[in-house]
């Protein structure tokens, strides 16, 4: 995990704090504090590397730091990991469910974004090769600030753009065009229409009909990740 014990770097947030003391953190009134999320951290110090950091999030547990994995490179950086599928099938895996830790790659991870209180307006959805190294990635946006609360039992359409996929020609997979149903506690809903029927990212991988570029961007039946920003 990144912390103040590391050496100083250009762009560090120093406001009357000892140089090098707040790497991966911000300085407030002469004391080190935590960033709200990876986006805020990256905006303040674009030199920070991808990795696990302690952040604060927002309501209802503001003030209690927790670990989060930040991707500081892909699609301009500043992305916070909220879900990662892996071997296993925990019962808690969804926008409002928590399981495991972002530091552990051997089992599925789900943050519980509602409890963390992280604000976001876009998603980065895809698959990985090993660890958290992207294989395929698609950006989905825009999302309203009330996404988690207002779309608990509803879906909304988003604009999907390809960020990374060596096997497809840049088109948007139809199975990512609807998101929402945030009250589900066993998967993150993604589909080509507003009804669930069991499609999306589960703890043990994507369920997206087939492996074609036009439907799933080749992500069906593969381990996936969801980041927010």
What report would you give on this structure?
- The protein has helices at about 40-45, 115, 145-150, 215; strands spanning about 25-30, 30-35, 50-55, 65-70, 80-85, 100, 110, 125-130, 135-140, 155, 160-165, 180, 185-190, 200, 205, 225-229.
- A hairpin with a 2-residue loop joins strand 14 (about 200) and strand 15.
- It has a domain at about 75-229.
- With about 230 residues, it is mainly beta.
- The strands form 3 sheets. Strands 3, 4, 5, 6, 7, 8, 9, 11 and 16 form a 9-stranded antiparallel sheet that branches. It has a 5-stranded antiparallel sheet with strand order 10-12-13-14-15, with no helix packed on it.
- The chain has 4 helices and 16 strands.
- Residues about 5-15 have low confidence and may be disordered.
Would you kindly provide a brief summary of this structure?
The chain is mainly β. It has a domain at 73-228. Helix content is 8%, strand content 31%.
